[in-house]
Amino acid sequence: MPWLQLRLNATADTAEKVGDLMSACGALSVTFLDSKDNPVFEPMPGETRLWGETDVMGLWDAEADMDIVVSYLQMHGGLTKGQRYKLEPLEDKDWEREWMDNFHPMQFGERLWICPSWRDAPAADAVNVILDPGLAFGTGTHPTTALCLQWLDSLDLTDKTVVDFGCGSGILAVAALKLGAKSAIGIDIDPQAILASRDNAERNGVSDKLSLYLPDEQPADLKADVVVANILAGPLRELAPLICRLPLPGGHLALSGVLESQAEEVASAYQSHINLDPICQKEEWARISGIAK
Ligand SMILES: C[S@@+](CC[C@H](N)C(=O)[O-])C[C@H]1O[C@@H](n2cnc3c(N)ncnc32)[C@H](O)[C@@H]1O
C-alpha cells in the first residue's frame, strides 16, 4: 500500500501540539526530527522541548484526504497561514527498501554490534544484538543510546545484575545480557515498550533472563550491580531519589538522554549518592556515570 507523508516545521513550543493534531486526524505515525533528520524523543507530559526547531512528520495511508488534514491543522493552529509544508507519496516498497538498505550493523565500544536481522553478523566472535529498526525508540542510532551501549561494552558484566530504566525497545538490557550479565530488569512507563523489549529479548535468545515491569509493578527492594537510565533530564532529576537507590554499593550507574547544557544540573541531583566520572559527550548529548557510594 502506498503512503502519504506530510512534513512541516515547528518550534520547541508547537511541535507536540502539531504531533497531537496529526494523530487526531488519522496519522498512522508521527515522528519528530531534529535539524540533522535524527528522530528525537517525544516529550514527557508537561515537559518543555529543548531542541529548538523540529520537523514533524506524519504518515497516512493513501486513502486519506490530505486537504481535510491540512485544513484541520490550519484551523487548530498546527499550520499557520502561508506556512510551507511538504506532502509526498511514499511507495511502500521504496520505503521499506530504503530503510533496510540504510540500516547496517553498527559497532559500539570494542565488542558490541547491533545488527539488523536481515544482515549477516559482522564477525563471528563479536557480541551481536539482533534488532530490527522500527518506529519505536532504541535502535542505537540515537547518540543517547550509543553513549549507553559504549558504556555497557566498557564494563565487565559477567554474572552481573542489570536494571534498564526506561527500556524502550529493550536494546540496553538485551545488550547487557549478551555481554554476559546474569539477569536484567527492564522498566518502562509505556506498555508498548514492554512488548517490544520482550520481542527483542526473544529474538536474541535471552528472554529467560529478562524481567519487565511497568514502574508501579517493579519490586520494592530492587537493587542491581549495574543501572542504566536513558530517559530525559526532567524525569532523571525527579526520579533521582529512586534511581540513586537502585545500584548496590560499589555498583555502576549511567544516566543518558541529557543535553550537554543540562548535565551539571542532573549530575548534582546524584552526587550525594554516586561518585561521578567525568561527563562523556556525543554530539550535543551527555552521559553521566559513576559508582554508587
Ligand atoms: C529515550 S527512550 C530510551 C530507550 C532505550 N533504553 C534506549 O536507550 O534507546 C526513553 C524511554 O524511557 C521511558 N520513560 C520515560 N519516562 C519514564 C519513567 N518515568 N519511568 C519509566 N520509563 C520512562 C519512555 O517510555 C521511553 O521508552
TrEMBL record:
Keywords: Cytoplasm, Methyltransferase, Ribonucleoprotein, Ribosomal protein, S-adenosyl-L-methionine, Transferase. The keyword Secreted does not apply. GO terms for biological process: methylation. Its EC number is 2.1.1.-. GO terms for molecular function: protein-lysine N-methyltransferase activity. Its main location: cytoplasm. It comes from the Bacteria. CDD domains: AdoMet_MTases. It catalyses: L-lysyl-[protein] + 3 S-adenosyl-L-methionine = N(6),N(6),N(6)-trimethyl-L-lysyl-[protein] + 3 S-adenosyl-L-homocysteine + 3 H(+). GO terms for cellular component: cytosol; ribosome. It is found in: Cytoplasm. Methylates ribosomal protein L11. NCBIfam families: prmA (TIGR00406). This is Ribosomal protein L11 methyltransferase.
